[in-house]
Amino acid sequence: MRAHTRLFAQPSRSSKELQDLEPITTIMFSPSACTLLTDQLTVKGQSQGGLLFGTSVGETLHVAFASGQGHPWWTSPPPAYPHIDARYTLGWSEAIQATSKGQYDWVGNWLAYSDSRHRELHEDLALLHLGLQDGLFDDRHALVIAGMESGYLYVHAYLYDDGPLQLVANGLAGPLITNMP
Predict the structure, then answer these.
(1) Which of 19, 66, 67, 72 lies 20 to 30 Å (CA to CA) from residue 35?
(2) Residue 20 to residues 5, 14, 17, 71, Cα–Cα distance (Å)
């Protein structure tokens, strides 16, 4: 479980297993994850974020569930994004692992700007680099920037492997992809 790896320094996969994984090029969202993101984006005036849970199959990262960030009064002052609360992340991760019988794990984080709209690429990449410094994002764990336009959810998704990689994602750039394995 990634949360255990991150918080307790317990390896979850061997280096051999990691070498055999195909590079991720596409991200897909379940209807449940899309609903949570859409609902969260109706709240304007503050930056938001949360956790993403799912699995990778071949070249596709499947996001089955999304969570909110947690309660803002847990940290004072509110942390800069991207940020995770260790207790919140561990609780969600253990609950998802138990209810999915180990099928899903923490696969990334989502963020939204305070007006729920997208910004320029360089602003997204600045957030990606902040998360890289904290070990949140890599070639298997995505940063998703969510936004709304004309009443539709759209996302920009990024990984990092020897440089930033933008994933093909559901949203305005293509059809809403919601098939889960």
Answers:
(1) 72
(2) 19, 10, 5, 38
